[in-house]
Amino acid sequence: MAIQQGQITITGFLGSEPTPLGLRDGARAACRFRLACTRGYRDGDGRWQSLPTTWITVKAFRELALNIVNSLHKGEAVIVVGVLSTQEWPGEDGKPRSHTFIEASNVGHDLNYGVTVVRRIAKEQNDAQPTRQQRQDEGRADAPVDLGVDASRIDPCTGEVTVDEAAQAEVISEANAVAAQAAEPVGAGTRRDDF
């Protein structure tokens, strides 16, 4: 019976580009990156205060490592699930040294900070005949994704949607009108059905 280690989940921003380690085939691939985690709180005056940043090394292996190297970049917000691991080695002075890191089982973009598009990578097959799923996925991997936004409004570098000033002004105007109407006094026992 295997001993189950407690998983941890942590969010933060990539402080470095993922570094490939080992061989780049699926069975022996590995990578690592640094994750910056900054907690914060509101002080007594309601201002946001940041605590010192905690830097954590994350390591991943096999297919996950290959996908991380091909998908994540410095500065992006991510969610990491994994277990704490410790690597030990003798130092130059003969004293034992150790380093604690997260061995990731799952890594992905934190969608609180933007949108992302997932593209499945087909696994190699020993036979030449594609599976039914591969035939269904064929042609969809690079197909455009409808995000409900005109593609010309999406920044190709950051993926952020630019603001349509006129539409934003119209929404703000409507919200202000509703708020003003809601603030008007109403007599006791009177219902307001015009919202």
Description:
By secondary structure, the protein is an alpha+beta fold. It has a domain at 8-121: Nucleic acid-binding proteins (OB fold (Dihydrolipoamide Acetyltransferase, E2P), Beta Barrel). It is 18% helix and 32% strand. The protein is built from 3 helices and 8 strands. The chain has a 5-stranded mixed barrel with strand order 1-3-6-8-7. Strands 4-5 form a two-stranded antiparallel sheet. The N and C termini lie far apart (62 Å). Residues 134-143 have a biased composition (Basic and acidic residues). InterPro entries: NA-bd_OB-fold, Primosome_PriB/ssb, ssDNA-bd. One of its GO terms (molecular function) is single-stranded DNA binding.
Secondary structure: elements and pairs:
Layout: E1 8-14, E2 19-22, E3 29-37, E4 40-42, E5 48-50, E6 54-61, H1 62-71, E7 77-90, E8 96-109, H2 132-137, H3 165-183
Parallel strand pairs: 6-8
Antiparallel strand pairs: 1-3, 1-7, 2-3, 3-6, 4-5, 7-8
Record keyword descriptors for this entry.
alpha+beta; five-stranded mixed barrel; 3 helices; OB fold (Dihydrolipoamide Acetyltransferase, E2P); two-stranded antiparallel ribbon; elongated; 8 strands; 195 residues
Concise structural overview:
This is Single-stranded DNA-binding protein. This protein is of the alpha+beta class and 195 residues long.
